[in-house]
Every structure is written in C-alpha cells, then in structure tokens.
C-alpha cells in the first residue's frame, strides 16, 4: 500500500537521524494514513471576541521575504506533525482529517499528504519536530504544519533551517506583530488558530443548563495562556447561562484540575480517569474536557451506566460524542479543513505569507464544514428545552448581544482583569495570565 511505503520512508529517515543524534527510549508507533473525506467548497471567516459580524480579529504581522514562486498543483505535498495519535477522537484526529480535506479538495492523490503522529518528548524522545520536518521536506513537502504549542522550539528551528519552505505553527503567535514576542526574522513561519473561546463558552452554557447539582468540573491539560483562556471562557459561558437563563441566585461551582500535558501519558501526567472520578465523588455532575482525548466522557459514561446521573462535554473532534452519546451534551470542535485548504492554495499560487490568523466561527452556520473553523455539535444528552436555550445563546454570541468578556471581571487572586464597562482586547484574552475569580483550582502550574 502507498501509505505504508510513505510511512516506512519517513521512519527510515528519522531512524537514521536518531541513531546519529541521540539514543532513543521506547517509542510509540507513529502512523500515517492517507484516505481523504469528501466536502464542499471552502471559505474562511473570522469573528471578533465580542461576537457580531465576522471580521478580522488580530492584525496580521507584517511579512518580509516570505517564500514565493508557487508550486505546480500536481507536485504539491503537505506535511503535518501531530502531537498525539492520529485517531484519538480528539485534537490530532481533527487536524489529520483537516489535512485530508485539503488534499482531497485540491484533487490530489493520497500520497500528497505526509503525516506523523506521537511527536512529543514522552512518546518519542528520539525525535525532534525539526528533524521530522526536515525528513518531510526531503520527501517533497511544500508546506509544513506543526499542530501543537508543544512544538514551539522545533518549529522555530525548522523555520530557521529551511527559510524557503512555508510553515505554520498552530496556536502560536510568533507572526503577531503586536504580540508579546514576535519573530519577524522567521518570514516563513505563520500562525493559525481558531477562536475556541466561543466553543468553550457554548460548552460552559450547556453544562450550566443541564447540571442538577450546580457543580461543574473541568479536566485541564497543561497550564498556559491558551488553556487558561479556554477555562475562563467555559466558566463565563456557564455563569451567564446559570444566572441569565436559569435565573439561579446560588453560586455556581466550577473547578479545574490540570493533568500536566495535552493528553494522559502514564508515569508523566496525572491519571485522567482518576481525576474524573475525583470530580464526580466531590459532587460534580457535569465534567467538561480540555484535554485532547476522551477520558472525561468515557469515565462519566461508565459511571452513568452504573446508575449515576452524570453528563460530560468532550473537546476538539466533531464525532467525540460517539464514545458515550447518551450523556454527551455536545462537543466544541475544530474544523481545520477550510483553513488548511486556503493555506495550501496560497503555497501553490505563490501568495503565501507568514501571517497571524485567529479565526472565528462562521456565525451564519457555525457547523458549516466548508467555512467555520469552530463548531459545536449538540449532543443527545442535552434536553430539547436546553438545546433550544443553547441555540439562543449561540445566536446572542453571534450577533454581539452577549459579550462575556466585559467587566467588571477579576483574576483569581482578586486583582482587576477588566474594570466595569471595559471590553477585553484580543491581546488581553489571548494572554490570559490567570484563571478568573470564581474558578476553583490552581491555574499557574509550570506549563
């Protein structure tokens, strides 16, 4: 099979590198798959953090000497590095299927996609992102995508070593001229991310609408600005719907525990299943996931099958509810296909530029597979009445009548985040230095 040949070629090159550069420990088996799904035409939209009409949120970084010249369509190849397993029912699978979408929409054969999974220090300590990128380039990759914040150093090194190859560091901000640490010297390394703050607001609202105990729990990965902004957004969505839709006056409880990485690694992170057990034993009846895999839903489903009244909200992947559909309140998910198609087309056309893009939902239909990078698939565990209320909340976010990032809001330590009447800027939301007041749990662990 063609996919096996490509996998063997890539692994052979990486093994040679590893033997020269470092001794390797036991490694998970990286895999490559090349079957692409179908889809319609593509477009991308962006939306401001306050909702309303679709607009560009963050000014793209100025670009200098970006790769130019274009690539013949029939020769184009896309390389993508996945931090986790290719079929994790979560973050990495969403990226992989987005890359498949782009290749198929371009009308290219399966072997135009080169992918490798488990690219992280715990699973594959002998591999570095830059070495994987170099091997993909040697196989003809014209665009390299690093799909994780965890790949920052490797993405920088690869961009420095291959200045003529367009690259994207997903979730990063090196190309944001107004960001904290722009790297204007890396004219070939851009950034793309989706405004998952909205997906998490919707998830939080669904949880608050459904809870019977008034106790929500959030299974977090590692701690950094991204994960804190998502915890904060879920909390704000939950608090708003608890108070404004349900009319509750009692305080909503919202607790977060971070396991230490984007997904569970035995012996390295906390046991995600045990953390979920602890949440439930402490009284939470809805667990929201912020990790790349599905333990929150799976374990909650197991205990629900044993007679407990529980619900869960998974993360990242449109079909994640399949793990336990009866208790799933829905899933906020990434739809990378349209963005990846646009990036690939820009490389083919010779118009690629290393910009910072923070893309919002297509508010006309957040679940449009050909236009919206952020969606929310409502689960069968959500009651019909709550689903109707959730749709109204989504519409309010979209038309701007609901703005959750408006003060007064304090940080967890009591200091002011937003004064009364102040609306958060993209910069303030992106760089979330703490969790918000009202969130229980330590939010400033080493990332």
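-> sequence recovered:
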């Amino acid at each position: 099979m063609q996919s096996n040949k490509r996998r063997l070629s890539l692994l052979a090159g990486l093994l040679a590198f590893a033997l020269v550069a470092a001794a390797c420990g036991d490694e998970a088996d990286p895999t490559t798959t090349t079957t692409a799904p179908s889809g319609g035409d593509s477009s991308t939209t962006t939306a401001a953090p306050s909702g309303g009409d679709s607009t560009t949120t963050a000014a793209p970084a100025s670009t200098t000497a970006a790769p130019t010249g274009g690539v013949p369509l029939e020769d184009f190849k896309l390389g993508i590095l996945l931090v986790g397993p290719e079929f994790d029912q979560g973050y990495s699978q969403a990226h992989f299927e987005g890359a498949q979408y782009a290749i198929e929409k371009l009308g290219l054969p399966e072997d135009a996609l080169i992918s490798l999974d488990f690219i992280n220090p715990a699973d594959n300590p002998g591999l570095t992102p830059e070495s994987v990128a170099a091997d993909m380039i040697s196989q003809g990759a014209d665009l390299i995508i690093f799909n994780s914040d965890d790949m920052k150093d490797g993405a920088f090194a690869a961009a420095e070593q291959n200045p003529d190859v367009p690259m994207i560091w997903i979730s990063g901000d090196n190309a944001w001229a107004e960001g904290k640490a722009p790297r204007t010297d890396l004219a070939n390394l851009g950034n793309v991310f989706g405004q998952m703050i909205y997906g998490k607001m919707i998830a939080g609202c669904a949880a608050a609408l459904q809870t019977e105990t008034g106790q929500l729990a959030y299974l977090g990965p590692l701690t950094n600005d991204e994960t804190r902004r998502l915890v904060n957004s879920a909390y704000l969505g939950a608090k708003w719907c608890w108070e404004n839709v349900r009319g509750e006056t009692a305080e909503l409880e919202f607790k977060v525990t971070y396991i230490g990485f984007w997904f569970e690694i035995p012996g390295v992170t906390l046991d995600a299943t045990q953390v979920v057990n602890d949440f439930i034993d402490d009284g939470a009846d809805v667990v929201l996931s912020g990790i790349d895999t599905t333990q929150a839903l799976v374990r909650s489903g197991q205990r629900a099958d044993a007679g407990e009244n529980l619900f869960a909200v998974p993360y990242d992947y449109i079909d994640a509810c399949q793990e336990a559909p009866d208790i799933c309140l829905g899933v906020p998910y990434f739809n990378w296909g349209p963005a990846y198609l646009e990036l690939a087309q820009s490389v083919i056309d010779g118009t690629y530029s290393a910009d910072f893009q923070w893309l919002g939902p297509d508010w006309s239909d957040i679940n449009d597979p050909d236009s919206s990078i952020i969606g929310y698939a409502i689960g069968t565990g959500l009651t019909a009445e709550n689903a109707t209320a959730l749709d109204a909340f989504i519409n309010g976010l979209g038309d701007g009548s609901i703005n959750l990032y408006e003060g007064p809001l304090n940080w967890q330590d009591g200091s002011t985040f937003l004064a009364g009447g102040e609306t958060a800027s993209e910069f303030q939301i992106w760089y979330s230095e703490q969790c918000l007041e009202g969130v229980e749990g330590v939010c400033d662990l080493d990332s």
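The chain has two domains: 2-195+336-359, 197-335+375-440.
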